[in-house]
């Protein structure tokens, strides 16, 4: 039995369903032809705030007692969780402080501010931002809602798995973008609970795949944080990881890694063939199919996790493929 099971995800679904969108599951004709099986896109890029993170954040905020809500909320975030938490907190009339590293793109910082949250820019890594969170918890009594390693957050993300199992019971494979593993752990717990025979495969970028390296090492390890087109997949899994490492280890059938070129191709395909604006992290499932990095044996669901990409970056990827990759994503820090 995993830390977050089906029961908890079903409860989360009841709690959040009137606060989030049930996102479309749409067949991709071109990918279906490419793979010889029906390929469905679960478009969490259509979720309010532009990513699935609203599900976990909303479940966590709604699960807080009134004392905790009064004290306010704090998190470290590469952007989408911060935005989601700001939205969820505003909906409940709760103060939210979002700590980010200086590597987070400007469009994400502005989006969080526009939702009424306080932003603190600290250091150059997710770990630096996390230290500030811990200081605010210690010294100012705020309550932390982490981006992935939290039972209510995982359960909230898992509601995507329930929707997939309902809408596509003949699925053979589900592809899930993988970073800290809240999304993959929640979806895998829901899918394996409802449809045990379905494979769930995580997809990360080669540049800084913390969960992949941790699974290989058999324990949480740190990896160097590198700039990547899949910026929402950056950051570590936490050396004190409580939930997502064990859940990903026990529930995922495999993890595959992608180059920056392959991710760019996924973003281009999403726009030109599917008419969808998708950020790098959101495009990795599509990219894995295009690059034939996974063995497709039946109907497949691809979780398209978010749409929050800088417009200029998106344009440059569309117009000048490999040049955009080396200009925007090829440089480490
Ligand atoms: C956060 C995020 C992910 C990864 O989710 P984890 O729970 O950290 O694995 C994937 N895609 C997008 C768009 C995200 O914002």
UniProtKB/TrEMBL annotation:
Q: Which Gene3D superfamilies match?
A: 3.40.50.1100
Which positions fall inside the Tryptophan synthase beta chain-like PALP domain?
16-304
**InterPro entries registered for this protein in UniProt:** Ectoine_EutB (IPR014333), Ser/Thr_Dehydratase (IPR050147), Ser/Thr_deHydtase_PyrdxlP-BS (IPR000634), TrpB-like_PALP (IPR001926), TrpB-like_PALP_sf (IPR036052)
- Molecular functions per Gene Ontology: L-serine ammonia-lyase activity; pyridoxal phosphate binding; threonine deaminase activity
Sorted keywords for this record are: Lyase, Pyridoxal phosphate
Q: Which cofactor does it need?
A: pyridoxal 5'-phosphate
Question: What biological-process terms (Gene Ontology) are attached?
Answer: isoleucine biosynthetic process; L-serine catabolic process; L-threonine catabolic process
Q: Which domain of life is it from?
A: Bacteria
NCBIfam families assigned? ectoine_eutB (TIGR02991), PRK07476.1 (NF005680)
Q: Which family does it belong to?
A: Belongs to the serine/threonine dehydratase family.
Q: What is this protein called?
A: Threonine dehydratase
Q: Which organism is it from?
A: Microvirga guangxiensis
